[in-house]
Design a protein that fits this description.
The chain is of the alpha/beta class and 459 residues long. It has 2 domains: 40-318, TIM Barrel, CATH 3.20.20; 328-444, Immunoglobulins (Immunoglobulin-like, Sandwich). The protein has helices at residues 2-36, 69-75, 88-98, 120-137, 160-175, 190-198, 214-223, 256-270, 308-318, 442-458, and strands at 40-45, 48-53, 56-57, 60-64, 79-81, 101-106, 143-150, 181-186, 205-209, 230-235, 278-283, 328-334, 337-338, 343-346, 350-358, 366-373, 395-396, 402-406, 412-421, 426-436. The strands form 4 sheets. Strands 4-5-6-7-8-9-10-11 form an 8-stranded parallel β-barrel. Helix 4 (120-137) packs parallel to helix 5 and helix 8 (256-270) runs parallel beside helix 9.
Amino acid sequence: MKTPKLHHTLSERNNALLKRALFSMIVFFSFTSFSQVEPVTVSKEDGKWTLLVKGEPFYIKGAGGEKHLDVLLECGGNTIRTWGVENAQEVLDLAQKKGLKVMMGLWVQHERHGFDYNDEDKIRKQLESFRLAVRRYKDHPALLLWGIGNEYELQYNNTKVWKAVNDIAEMVQEEDPNHPTSTVTAGTNDVKVAFVKNELTAIDIYGINTYGDIGNVHKVLEKANFERPYMITEWGPNGHWESPKTRWGASIEQTSSEKAAVYKDRYEKYIWDKREQCLGSFAFLWGQKQEYTSTWYGVFTEDGEPTEAIDVLEYNWKGEFPENRAPKIEDLKINGNQLEKNTILGGNEKVSIEVLATDMNSDKLKYSWELYPESTDLKSGGDAENKPVSILGRLSKKSSPKVEMKAPIREGKYRLFVTVTDGVRVSYANIPFYVDPKNMEEDTRVRFIQQDIKSFEDQ
């Protein structure tokens, strides 16, 4: 009779011990999770705004993107920016491993993509989905701040989006008192600043995406008596919408060397020099994408090679250039003459195009040329675009600094790309040109017409 009683007593004791152990584990992991939080605050002292991480000043030397983090660290960068939470855990964990901070984006839907800001149910669901994300990631030690929305006011009409953004910001402040809120607009002007000042009362830091117009940002904020802190959340070369255009409407892209000069000048004048109110910036794009061209915004190539812009960003962040510098594009010539803004060629016309490049380290340079039709899949606001298919058979001597090209026969817009590499870093340029069949030699035009007739008959 005693044995069952002893067994029962031992079972109760074991259960009690197990419960205590489980409780201790819960307390331990809860404490560990909480203790990992690195509180971030924004303070103003003697007229200067400062971002503080665990009470220590933190100036954002950031990049927009989630790749090539080792290169970012080598350059002196300390923060990355995302636009959404699709792979947030992976990004935060990797950033923590590398010693980087993250501006975590909450992608506020755009009216231009079909979202209706008169639909209260959709607005509520959007906010509640963000609440779950904030609860999930708010205690991660790599988190620096929340980026609530990006360019949601681009091509919009319904101003209710501003209230929706502020409601999200209020929710974030309620759920996570340890990290500041921010929001991002496409550039800025008097109207946008007025909305940020009057409607976005729960936003701690104003984020501005700006390119060629970066020099006017502080002037606009000053004129509006905007006294809160701000960040430059995207910046880089002149945007394709604000660049010089050819007679046929093709935007002229800066060479990588011209872009490098821009990254240096704009950082010094309009970011670092404004640090009493500007808490830092995110260079765009820390990666590569097709947007108008395949080279316009990325500071890496499609193959992941660093370009000239990275040399300058390292100088901006560390105060010194890397030992190995990218080649520099000095000039482009066509048939030995200076390249003109409007290059018009006849169909099948033969031309030679030369790139003049130098290397500060006296490295041996390699060259590559590619011909494409001008992209027609043009979007706005950074929406995904498809890269055109390259044109084969029109270039010879493609691995030399001077390429021989037979212009395409068909009338239209084209672009010739050249890359120069020292085996580690890359420079590049491209030339938009137009093919006008009226300039085609008579016998070539006849053959072309005959080929078209034959092609039609074969169908």
